[in-house]
From TrEMBL:
Residues 82-94 have a biased composition (Acidic residues). Keywords: Repeat, WD repeat. The keyword Repeat applies. Coiled coil: none annotated. WD repeats lie at residues 628-663, 723-755. This is Protein SPA1-RELATED 3. Gene3D superfamilies: Transferase(Phosphotransferase) domain 1 (1.10.510.10), YVTN repeat-like/Quinoprotein amine dehydrogenase (2.130.10.10). The lineage of its organism: Eukaryota, Viridiplantae, Streptophyta, Embryophyta, Tracheophyta. It comes from the Eukaryota. Residues 34-94, 161-193 are annotated as: Disordered.
Length: 859
């Protein structure tokens, strides 16, 4: 059987024979000439020798490199429409392949232009010969030409067959001034505004190698310096003679192999025709050297004109360089002006805000001054009254006459009394007043850059909203009573509220101030209690979920130990015990992934496990009253609705979210089964579900496809909105309020979303992105309370964020203690697995992957 090599060989031979027949019919007696036609020459070089095969491989590699370079340039430059194969395309920086420029139909020949191009190529070849290098690639497809007729050498796909070690063909050398870039040589890349179409480049390039092959190379001899001189002769002919059609070009180039020149060239350009014949002599010893070519009258007679042209080109190049520099400077100036304008706007905002805050402060000071003085005076009198009485009694005991103490004597006695005791009668209060501003200021300066970014973004957002028609005042936070300023808890003006309109119209300041006060309200996380259990050495002690009951009196923990343990909060906080025992314990058949208390029925708690089962338990009776088995895989999350406590949602690895009705489950108690009310099908695993706080019909779903889906249970056909910005699996979703949703992902980020009031499709931009914790592979917990967001970290730390700022407010690292030695140790495998706020308080329950549970409080 014929292999692919033989079939290709036969097709090639038949094509060559057809070409030779066509050339013979056109040239006539050319077959009798000692120099073979191009196709016969090509056939002779196609032997199966290893040398020829190596050449073919080298050419193929060059073509592949050229395609890669073209692909890189296409990616770097602007993309346009797909160009036709035979249609010219504009190149970058107004460069064009010399082959395309030469082959323009009916090209007008300019003597000085052609001589200038030819002189540059001759100088380059002469420089190569001076270094002992045979160029080989002296052909139009190996050069590009700029708009100023500067010629540059490139490695073309059809370039010379010289060795790969040839320095000139392995890269690109500069032949003239100006900048240049690689251009596609297989495809036409120069625009030609002519009635006739340009010559097809592929056909011309296939013949170019034969046209520029010297007689001695056809005879099988290696290329020499004289071979380059022969190629210069062919190039000179192409420069000074333009063709009307492709057929005419093929005939003329075939005749050129026999040194037969067209009559038009001999009549119009006799000197150039004579030089062509001189360079194309069949015997290489008779051809001139490069020094002779450079000294020839042909190149030196119009030397003055060429020098003037060269000087004009250099002047134009310098002008273009100046224009480029000017363009760069103008662009830089524009960018800096934009920065200056932004700085001016920021300074203007700052000035206005400083005036507004100063105005608000002055009004507060006037309102609070009188009461503060009165309170301070009364507190001093109460504080000093016992001391003064004791001093009076002491002096009155030693004196017969009762006299009233002078004020200066009273002061000296007080000072003496304090110095003797070496203790301030009010040290704690004074210390708090003095130290808190300092610690807050240091924390403020530590995060100054991030606070500045938040300030600028919110301020610009407010300006854009105010610039919209009809928006005279923008209410950033609506409380039902309008925007109002309320100082932080613990300040001296807690008892007063005042309307913003009384102190200014800059309504955005109060929400920012509130957020900053919330951010600075607490300085650390304090351990209120450390839950001590008897099975700390049990390796299967990972806590997956925790939660407080309806009244926040009890909390439950559950995990891979297949148990739900319920503890009383006050007992844990107030009792100093070696081991804390749960008040109730529920045992399940499988590992528990999530638990959720019912917000209406205090003792009801739901759980989901790794076997795909959802159960509802009565913790008081320690009895299950509903078992739901419709899920096919592990269930990650369950959630009771706050507004309709009979509704329960569950999300599973099977991509399904099911809504259950607890009343139906109670009706079918004797069957121990309750069917789901409805099912939502998703394309990926479901990791988290949660009902909206004020609606039993709105449900948020966190999915493994990096998205959050918000559904209206009355219309399950499509989600009401889809939140798209996370890069990895969304592990948790929690509502911050009815219009704000928080999502956590294994891409090390937590995002805050503003939910639209109506269906809005895809939302891609979150309000805030919180970073600082580490989370790439584990479920680390998420909980929200009064604007604060708590999460765990794979660094075994608890992080607290506030909704207004992207950086952590507080953090606490769980210590790792060696159970044998009792010493602190580092264990990178441990992480925080669950967190839960105690309602709207500042107390947080946190658990690590080893079952270490702590009650933390922000102080």
């Amino acid at each position: 059987m014929d292999g692919p090599w033989r079939r290709r060989r036969r097709r090639k031979e038949s094509a060559i024979k057809a070409g030779n027949m066509w050339f013979s019919s056109q040239v006539g007696a050319a077959a009798a000439d000692p120099y073979p036609p191009p196709f016969a020459s090509f056939l002779e070089r196609q032997g199966p020798s290893k040398k020829r095969r190596r050449r073919r491989r080298r050419r193929r590699r060059r073509r592949e490199r050229s395609k890669v370079m073209r692909g890189l340039e296409d990616a770097a430059g602007p993309r346009g429409e797909v160009e036709d194969e035979d249609e010219p395309a504009a190149t970058a920086e107004d460069e064009v392949s010399l082959r395309q420029w030469v082959d323009q139909p009916s090209r007008a020949v300019d003597l000085l232009q052609c001589l200038h191009i030819f002189r540059q190529i001759v100088d380059a070849v002469n420089a190569a010969h001076a270094q002992g290098v045979v160029v080989g690639g002296v052909r139009p497809s190996c050069f590009v030409m700029s708009s100023l007729d500067r010629v540059s050498f490139i490695e073309s796909a059809s370039c010379s067959e010289s060795s790969e070690d040839d320095d000139l063909t392995s890269g690109r050398s500069r032949l003239g001034g100006g900048s240049s870039r690689m251009v596609a040589s297989e495809e036409p890349s120069g625009g030609v505004e002519d009635e006739k179409a340009a010559f097809p480049m592929k056909k011309v390039l296939q013949m170019e190698a034969a046209w520029y092959t010297s007689p001695e190379e056809d005879a099988g001899k290696p290329a020499t310096f004289a071979s380059d001189v022969y190629r210069l002769g062919v190039l000179l002919f192409e420069l000074f003679y333009s063709f009307e059609s492709l057929e005419e070009k093929f005939i003329s180039m075939a005749n050129l192999r026999h040194r037969v020149l067209p009559p038009q060239l001999l009549l119009k350009w006799p000197k150039e025709a004579s030089c062509c014949l001189w360079l194309l002599h069949p015997h290489q010893d008779t051809r001139p050297k490069m020094s002779g070519v450079l000294e020839s009258e042909f190149l030196n007679q119009p030397k003055d004109s060429l020098e003037e042209r060269d000087a004009a080109i250099k002047l134009k190049e310098e002008t273009e360089d100046q224009e480029l520099l000017l363009e760069f400077l103008l662009h830089l100036q524009l960018k800096k002006k934009e920065i200056v304008d932004q700085l001016h706007n920021t300074i203007r905002f700052l000035t206005a805000d400083i005036e507004e805050v100063t105005h608000q402060k002055s009004i507060l000071s006037k309102k609070s001054c009188s009461k503060l003085d009165k309170d301070d005076r009364s507190s001093k009198e109460k504080l000093y009254e016992p001391l003064l009485d004791s001093v009076k009694d002491e002096y009155s005991f030693n004196s017969d006459a009762r006299k009233r103490l002078r004020p200066d004597l009273q002061n000296s006695i007080q000072e003496k009394h304090y110095n003797v005791g070496a203790k301030d009668p009010r040290p704690k209060k004074v210390q708090q007043i003095q130290e808190n501003p300092l610690s807050k200021s240091s924390r403020l300066m530590k995060n100054c850059e991030k606070l500045e970014a938040v300030y600028v973004s919110k301020r610009c957002r407010t300006v854009k909203q105010e610039s919209q028609p009809g928006n005279k005042f923008i209410h950033i936070i609506s409380s039902g009573k309008g925007s109002s300023f309320r100082p932080p808890h613990g300040s001296s003006v807690d008892d007063w509220d005042y309307d913003v309109e009384n102190v200014g119209r800059n309504e955005w300041i109060n929400p920012f101030l509130k957020g900053m006060c919330k951010y600075l309200a607490f300085s650390r996380l304090k351990v209120r209690a450390d839950l001590k259990q008897g099975d700390l050495l049990n390796p299967r002690n990972l806590v997956c979920s925790m939660g407080f009951d309806r009244d926040k009196e009890f909390f439950a923990t559950a995990g891979v130990n297949k148990k739900i343990k319920i503890f009383e909060c006050n007992t844990i906080l107030n009792g100093d015990r070696d081991i804390h025992y749960p008040v109730a314990e529920i045992i399940n058949a499988s590992k528990i992934s999530c638990i959720c208390w019912n917000s209406y029925i205090k003792s009801h708690i739901a759980l989901s496990d790794f076997e795909g089962v959802v159960q509802a338990w009565d913790a008081t009776r320690n009895q299950v009253f509903a078992v739901m088995r419709e899920h096919e895989k592990r269930v990650w999350s369950v959630d009771f609705s706050l507004t309709d406590p009979t509704k329960l949602a569950s999300g599973s690895d099977d991509g399904a979210v099911k809504i259950w009705n607890i009343n139906q489950a109670i009706l079918f108690l004797h069957l121990v089964y309750a069917g789901s009310v409805c099912t939502i099908r998703t394309k990926a695993n479901v990791c988290s579900v949660q009902f909206q706080p004020d609606s039993a019909y709105s449900l948020a779903i966190g999915s493994a496809d990096h998205k959050i889906y918000c559904y209206d249970l009355r219309n399950l056909r499509i989600p009401r909105c889809t939140l798209v910005n996370h890069m990895k699996t969304v592990s948790y979703v929690k509502y911050l309020d009815s219009l704000s949703l928080v999502s956590a992902s294994t891409d090390n980020s937590i995002k805050l979303w503003n939910l639209p009031a109506s269906a809005s499709g895809i939302i891609e931009s979150p309000l805030q992105t919180f970073t600082g914790h580490a989370n790439i592979k584990n479920f680390v917990g998420l909980s929200t309370s009064d604007g604060y967001i708590a999460t765990g970290s794979e660094t075994n730390e608890v992080f607290i964020y506030y909704k207004s700022f992207p950086m952590p407010v507080l953090s606490y690292k769980f210590g790792v203690t060696d159970p044998i030695s009792g010493k602190e140790m580092d264990d990178a495998s441990q992480f925080i697995s669950s967190v839960c706020w105690q309602g709207e308080t500042s107390t947080l329950l946190a658990a690590s992957s080893t079952g270490n549970i702590k009650l933390l409080e922000m102080v």
